From TrEMBL:
Catalytic activity: L-cysteinyl-[protein] + hexadecanoyl-CoA = S-hexadecanoyl-L-cysteinyl-[protein] + CoA
Annotated segments matching region Disordered: 1-24
Origin: domain of life: Eukaryota
Compartments where found: Membrane
Membrane topology according to the record: Multi-pass membrane protein
Listed transmembrane segments: 76-100, 115-143
Lineage: Eukaryota, Viridiplantae, Streptophyta, Embryophyta, Tracheophyta
Domain Palmitoyltransferase DHHC: 30-153
Protein name (Swiss-Prot/TrEMBL): S-acyltransferase
Enzyme Commission number, as recorded: 2.3.1.225
UniProt source species: Vanilla planifolia (Vanilla)
């Protein structure tokens, strides 16, 4: 399962999600212009300096998968992180259980803690911490319907709004349940399955001030 997720993650977005080159600027300035691509880009799209293209709903460029994490593969990336964390904690639990059994003398046939067990622990424990923090971070982002880029943009927007005596609200926060299904899909049974048929075109997104779309999916 882990290998499949890794394979899916690396291939889902070989060419980061881009938009048609004939995209034009809409009314009200909804689309922003990318000087590097010489194209207007839809909301939530950003230019990746590594991939050298604009990526729909870009979250970040991940050096570990050598690809951008964005509209087309964010759910797969999240599930990849989730299962990696589960595997790390499972490995750590097995290792600690073995050490505990050795300490209590329950391992027969001369079983003992070897240098390989110590090395394994020194590798797995930091991975549990680092990847656990990463998983919690992306759970927070999903519950807020934000990307990593939008989070830091929101910090600045909140500061500017506060100086002006106003309140800032993330425009794509639809509520916890709607935020979850916008990323994981409307079928709860498929939340832990790497399906992406629900994500839509990635050029338009439901905003919190708009009426909810009947099928709760991203608008295309």
């Amino acid at each position: 399962m882990g290998n499949w997720h890794a394979e899916s993650e690396s291939k889902t977005n070989d060419e980061p999600s881009t938009f048609p080159s004939n995209t034009i600027k809409g009314e009200g300035g909804d689309l922003r212009y990318c000087q590097k691509c010489a194209l207007y880009k839809p909301p939530r799209a950003h230019h990746c300096r590594v991939c050298k293209t604009c990526v729909l709903r870009m979250d970040h460029h991940c050096v570990w998968i050598n690809n951008c994490v964005g509209h087309a593969n964010y759910k797969v990336f999240f599930l990849f992180t989730l299962y990696t964390v589960a595997a790390c904690f499972h490995s750590l639990a097995l290792l600690l259980g073995f050490v505990y059994d050795v300490h209590r003398g329950q391992i027969h046939n001369g079983g003992s803690v070897k240098i390989s067990h110590i090395i394994c622990g020194l590798v797995v424990f930091p991975l549990c911490l680092a990847l656990g923090v990463l998983l919690v971070w992306h759970i927070y982002l999903i519950l807020q319907n934000k990307t990593t880029i939008e989070h830091y943009e929101g910090v600045r927007a909140t500061w500017i709004a506060k100086k002006a005596g106003n309140n800032y609200k993330h425009p794509y926060d639809l509520g916890i349940y709607e935020n979850l299904i916008s990323v994981l899909g409307p079928n709860i049974a498929c939340w832990v399955w790497p399906t992406t048929s629900h994500i839509g075109s990635g050029t338009q997104f439901l905003a919190s001030h708009e009426n909810k779309h009947p099928d709760r999916s991203l608008t295309s």
